[in-house]
Amino acid sequence: MQEVYTRGFSSLSDLDIALTRTLSKCLGIETEFVIASTIKSEGNKDDKLLQIVKHLQGEAYLSGPAAKTYLCDRLWRDAGVGLVYKDSSGYPEYQQISEPFDSAVSVLDLLFMVGEKASDYIWGEFRQRF
Fold first, then answer.
1. Which of 54, 70, 119, 120 makes a 20 to 30 Å CA pair with 40?
2. R_g of the chain computed on alpha carbons
């Protein structure tokens, strides 16, 4: 993480992209990343996201739980694209700095607390459900 933070970025989005790629590498994720702004999309939040998902030939979109307040389930259903909200409950507990265990923290917490075993907590041997 220090290598990313000491680089010096001209924009917050460049920092975010670098962090996402670094964190993914730490977790063993080998997915190809596409920067959404490189895909032509127009309209409101639902329209833009749907266009991006369809451009990438996706069948579903995984969103954070806060988006339930502003995404329109009907639009996604009508477009034939699944809309799934992330749920952090059910993650196996690990030692955190303070009690009680909080599953709704950044993946940075997991990485800093368990190191190389972080991916096992997300989808490996410690994972109880996926």
1. 70
2. 17
